[in-house]
Amino acid sequence: MQNFRPDSARKRSDVGLPAINMEKQLHRMVAFIEMDGADKARDIDERAEEEYNLIKGNLLYNGRRELQESFNKRNKTAEKNVTQLESIIITKAKMVVQTARQNFISEVTTDIHQSLENCVTEDGYASVLKSLIIQALCMLQEADVIVQVREQDRDIVKSATNEMMDRYKSITGQDCNITLSKKNLPGKSIGGTVVYNKRCTLKVDNTLYDRLRIVLEQSLPMFRELLFNEPRRRADSSSKKNTPKATNKPTNKLRFQ
Q1: Can you tell me the distance from the alpha carbon of 153 to that of 206, in angstroms, rounded to the nearest whole number?
Q2: What is the mean pLDDT of residues 217-246?
Q3: Which of 1, 27, 85, 220 could serve as a FRET partner for 16 with CA atoms 20 to 30 Å apart?
Q4: DSSP of 67-89, one letter per residue?
């Protein structure tokens, strides 16, 4: 006996099968979409993570580089400041030392001047004065000269004028007429003489002060070496100044009238 289904039942069965298949396909599509979305989301997360790590690395690198550059710059500035400060301190220390040494040399020079002033009052000064005048005459080698001395030395020159002229002639073979200037050396002078030619266009400064100055200039490197252990940097340029030189410095003629 065959099963008999009405036409309405067959129609409902035919309609139910496609609906079930459609639902299955929908589930498959949803699953596929979800899987594909999950894959894409994972790819997006991975790329985002890579970009994040790259940006973070760049930021860290740039930040470290900037910090290192800033540190190097500040370090160089600090080293430069330290160097400048050391240079300033060393310079000031050298200035203090040089000032102290110069003050000491000035004190020694003052003591030497005082000792020389004391020596001028001794009996041997008259012979020294005559030798200084004769030396100045030999420097000028003029027939007529004007001799200028201190007020207290005028008598020595007056009494020894002929003696000095004879001594000059024995040395040079020439005659010389000595005139004593009416104007004396300044009161602060410690002795010696200044000799002029007749026109007062040449002079020889042979005062004790000038001779002492020359000796001190020549001896200063030796003083510094002995007192302060300073090496001599160069030969003393004043070593050639063994005797005073005649100068062409014009002078006022009216001062001797």
Answers
A1: 14
A2: 66
A3: 1
A4: HHHHHHHHHHHHHHHHHHHHHHH
